[in-house]
User: Fold PAI antiterminator-like protein from Escherichia coli.
Amino acid sequence: YELILEEKLYLSIRTKVLMD
Assistant:
């Protein structure tokens, strides 16, 4: 199972929310 992928997805969402 890909924890790194999940972490990147989480970071992407966080960044999007912060930039919004």
Observations:
- The helical segments are 3-19.
- The first helix runs from residue 3 to 19.
- The mean pLDDT is 90.
- The radius of gyration is 9 Å.
